[in-house]
Amino acid sequence: MSVKLSALILLFLAFHQVLARNRTRPNFLVVMSDAFDGRLTFDPGSKVVKLPFINYLRELGVTFINAYTNSPICCPSRAAMWSGQFVHLTQSWNNYKCLDANATTWMDLLEVNGYLTKMMGKLDYTSGSHSVSNRVEAWTRDVQFLLRQEGRPVTQLVGNMSTVRIMGKDWENIDKATQWIQQRAESSQQPFALYLGLNLPHPYKTESLGPTAGGSTFRTSPHWLEKAGCYLVSSEQVTVPKWLPGAAMHPVDFYSTFTKNCSGFFTEEEIVNIRAFYYAMCAEADAMLGQLISALRETHLLNNTVVIFTADHGELAMEHRQFYKMSMFEGSSHVPLLFMGPGLMSGVEADQLVSLVDIYPTVLDLADVAPVGSLSGYSLLPLLSTCSSCPGGPHPDWVLSEYHGCNANASTYMLRSGRWKYIAYADGLRVPPQLFDMILDKEELHNVVFKFSEVSAQLDKLLRSIVHYPEVSAAVHRYNKESFVAWRHTLGRNYSQVISSLRWHVDWQRNPLANERAIDKWLYGSF
């Protein structure tokens, strides 16, 4: 046999090995929503609003009922998901400071290993984005002033019973993703990985507050609020959450309530409407997920596709007298995490504590791709499959979440372990910690940190073994000061005009000299 013929045979065999591997490796569809409360994906929260396509994943896949964000804000949370590392390791401190543009993600590794990859919709995991207000509010959170940064949460009803597509930008991306799936079915033998980032159910920007306004409008239509097909917000299930009186609130929670413009009076009707409108926005997001699942089914790709649904963080929706995220309370930190696909178990609710950093090693294990570098996350494949020889060791019995951005005036660290949620702040000395019994106190209204001092001490020791949080808090404090000084220097004589026109402008302009003095004391005083 000639050398040339032997080479051709080897090339032919290698080609067929690649084809065979491609046929056995699954496709991936990953849908990450924005601000979706994970408690709505299992009972009793799932009874509030019907979410048929999330329920479809529940019935045919695995639902993690104790899944948490690694940072309850958009960009740092996504940075953790894409990198597989805790945010203090990547220094993803706020919505402006996250991953470098050249950071290696699990999607990059899939592409290098033969996957056809596509990322669509909201990505938001690299540095440099979000508003000037957002970054300045994060940098100055240690300044001793109290300024409202967000618009008061409101509702807006649009359209009529036939108005389905409220979030036009998301629907446009869903249509593009649907078309992409159809094209893949017709033209490619490669396994694919498609990521789609949604804006929903994040509140909409409140246009009446001007160009610097954040998202404080909960917008939907009668279609999603009332019975429409299989969707129905159950008004009798929309409860008014209990609030602590202001004097009994933890100081960081009180700061968040004030800066989120929630310290004023709200009627019961306002609170119920905000919550109902939010649930209706979740139903619209569910319909978007449904269109992609239908596209996979119609193109005969569903049986070989792992579908993952999750979110960057949750939404408080007036729990604890707050909306938005930026908090370690369940509404903000608890996220959905559902898997469905070939070889995975069906109809299973897994109670293991997990977090978004676990997605990285799990996707790579499912694709038979080796990770690069050290990871904070653990593969969930042993929890997804009955395979006795699945890779990955036991998952630890804790999860970590941390927050260093705006609307909270101290770096915050949450350790969830067993029945407990332990929350430490700053250096562990200047701000008192919190401890909640998640079995007896699901509403997180009773801080038992002093009642169970031994438990608190044990959890604090465990937390410090995972992250030396006083050191991290000091690093964030230095970063905030240096970033603010550099920003102020670039503005020159325009500084006073610019800082007084940010989102806090109403409160700032009442006493600008006192606010400037507070900043100077923060910059040039002792830490």
TrEMBL record:
It is found in: Lysosome; Secreted. This is Arylsulfatase K. Residues 26-369 form the Sulfatase N-terminal domain. It comes from Takifugu flavidus (sansaifugu). It holds the Pfam family Sulfatase. It catalyses: Hydrolysis of the 2-sulfate groups of the 2-O-sulfo-D-glucuronate residues of chondroitin sulfate, heparin and heparitin sulfate; an aryl sulfate + H2O = a phenol + sulfate + H(+). Its main location: other. Catalyzes the hydrolysis of pseudosubstrates such as p-nitrocatechol sulfate and p-nitrophenyl sulfate. Catalyzes the hydrolysis of the 2-sulfate groups of the 2-O-sulfo-D-glucuronate residues of chondroitin sulfate, heparin and heparitin sulfate. Acts selectively on 2-sulfoglucuronate and lacks activity against 2-sulfoiduronate. Its EC number is 3.1.6.1, 3.1.6.18. Keywords: Calcium, Glycoprotein, Hydrolase, Lysosome, Metal-binding, Secreted, Signal. It is an enzyme of class 3 (hydrolase). Its cofactor is Ca(2+). GO terms for cellular component: extracellular region; lysosome. Residues 1-20 form the signal peptide. Belongs to the sulfatase family. The lineage of its organism: Eukaryota, Metazoa, Chordata, Craniata, Vertebrata. It comes from the Eukaryota. GO terms for molecular function: arylsulfatase activity; glucuronate-2-sulfatase activity; metal ion binding.
